[in-house]
Structure formats: structure tokens, C-alpha cells
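Review box. Two proteins, two foldings.
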Amino acid sequence: MKYARLTKEQFDELHAEFASFLATQAIDKAEWDSLKLNKPEVAEQELDVFSDLIWEGVLSRAEFLEHFSKNHIFLFQCLETHVQSIVLKSLAPEIDFLTKDGLQWLSDNMFTDVIEMKTGKKIFTEDRNFSIFELIKQGAFLSDGQLFKQINSILES
């Protein structure tokens, strides 16, 4: 398996897609129920293959990621060959970006000396999608990129 098996909740959400996936392999509901009962290892393989297909599609379309921690915000733009990053760090240790108040404080203090801002670029040394998946495993989530674009446009001007 290249990525990770989808959760039960994700499979529930993708029920129709999973049924279509099984149908492409000539596996109907009765056959699937039989596989789960009599050949659970084959059923597990089907779940893994489907999970990787879904991840591959999602990661191929991924462009922006965000990762928030208590004192840092990591913003990423994933391009074809590299990832651009903007890292915001609070120099006030009592500030918590995981709270609404912390985000308001960030908004009020964005371009002051209590916020350290760094930009970076990293060439993908591994498969692009796998590199993005690694960021997600570390806590990043897909975003619309609005925050990245806003800050980036200010930094570029």
C-alpha cells in the first residue's frame, strides 16, 4: 500500500464510488459479501487498492496545505516540482494559534516584530504525491490557499 487505508467514515462517504470500483472488477454485492466472509485477505487488498486510488486522485489535485500548531502556522503551495512555504511563528509564547483568540491576535499583529515570517522552497526529491501525503500525515490539511495567497501577495509587493 502506497498511502493509508481510508477510515470507515471515508469509506461510508465514498460508498457509491467503492461500488463502482468493485463493479469495474466484476465484483457485485453478493461476490463482495462472499469475499469478506471467505477470503478476507482478498477483501482487504481491494480496500487498500481503492484507498490508494482515492488518495492518488486527491493528492494529484492538491495545491494548498495548512498546518497549525500552538506557535506556528505552516502554509504550503504544492506545485509540479516543488513546494513553496510560508512559516509564521509567534514570538509571544503565550499565544496559541489553535484558538480563535490566537488567530485574532495574529491578524492584529501580522506585520509586527512579534511575528517571525519565513518563506522557503523545497524541490520534491520523492514522488510529489507521496511528499504531500507525508505533510498530511504530520498534521497538514488541504485548503483553498486563501491565507497563503494573501500573505504571499503582501510579501511580494
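Next protein.
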Amino acid sequence: MTLFRRCVTLLLLTLSCAITVSAWATPKTVTVGGYSFPPYVVENHGDYSGLVPELIDTLNRLQGDYEFVFVPTSIERRYEAFERRRFDVILFESPEWGWQQIPKAVLPLGILDSEVFVGRSPEANSEGFFTDLAQRRLLLVRGYHYRFAGFNSDEHFLRTQFLAELVPDTRAAVEGLLLGRADVAPISQAYISYFQRSFPDKAQKLVVSTIVDQQYKHTALIHPQSPLDLNNLQALFGLLESSGELARLLSEYHLSREALVSHAGVPQ
């Protein structure tokens, strides 16, 4: 065999091995933290559904470089768990919610939601009902950040500054309103839409104000040691967009959209 043929044969063998290794490469596992935040994450006796689990399943179906795994965490300790790298990524976090000093990379998702005040009919139909929260009994979610409270999520502060009762999640806040345990609860527009679709009879008993407490400008937080970096996560959301799956999910969960940014944030 000539030297040239030997070189060609060696090159072909090398390429064949590289293709074989690539084909059988194990996808990198990326853990995604989530807490009870309907309809983004809906917890039911240890089972999790909602936008985040569905988005994870969709990403796993569309590509094979990464395997995304959902990891439950608590509302109150999610940032501490993130710092300790109990998970690599957490989705749908708004900039005012207390994570600015945590080491991370930040990807704006261009996905919006808002929070409005909700009451119970018929008393909440009266004029000016939602304008003076100091006079209303409030149902607030433990660990959530509210603009009217200066984004202070401390339970003692909320109980002493307002007529507030703390509940475990948004679902409990809405059910509490329906039972007459409070006058007002701040609820996300996405959850209101979900509740109206899922429980139309109960939803008729609610009064949804036009007063917006805050707008969620959703972002993804990526741990500095995550196997998935910021640019790759942005590319994956681009894949969701080009496949039409992102539009489907946002429509299903009644979320609005900004144009995806072309340049992501930098690690902070």
C-alpha cells in the first residue's frame, strides 16, 4: 500500500471513529429548578406540571445534546439553592425578585406577564375597592415579591405593615378569596387566564381589577458552573422559536412576548 493510500485510510478511520463517538455521545444533564408558581409550575402531591415541565419535555424532544431534568425547590429558598448549585438553571425570574447579588449569567427571555389585584364578587365590584390596600385583608404568597410592598418578601414585615395572611402558592390565594378569607390577592394574569379556562364557574365569582401591581420581565438564571452556558441556552430558545413550539406554549399559557434579544446579558 502506498504512503498516500495509507494516509487516506487512516484519515477515513479517524473520521469514522469521530462520527461514531459523536453519535453515541451521552447528552449533558442540565437540572432546572422550579417551585410552586402556577401556571409556570403546578404541584399536585409531588407531581409537577405546567409551563416549565412542558418546556423541559419539549427541549428534550427537539435536541439531544442536553437532557433537561426538573428539580423541585421551595419558593423561599430557591436562590440559596441556586447558589449552592442544587440546580443549574432557573426560569421565569423577574429582575426585582432579589437575585441581583447572586453569581450567575442572565438571559432575558422576552416573555412578559403581569400581576393584578383580584377580589371576590359582589363586594369587589364597588368603586375604589382596590385603591386602598391598607384597609383590605390580603392573601399573599409566602416568598413572593410585591411592588406595593417594596418587593420586601419578609413575612414579619408583610404581616405588620398590611392586613396580610401568607399562603403557600397562588392557587391557595385564589381559593382563599373564594372562601372569603380575605378581600384582595395579587394574582398573575397568566394564572387568572388558566383559572378562568379550567374553572369557569368559580372564576365568575372573582373580580379582576385593571390595576397592575407589577409586570414580570422574565429571565433565565444560569449557574456559573452549569454545563449549559448562556449562549447555548439562547440558541435553544431560538430552536423553540423556529420550531413554533415557543409560540404554542406561550399561547397555551396566555403569556405575551417581546422580541428575543440578539445579545444576552453577561455574568454578574
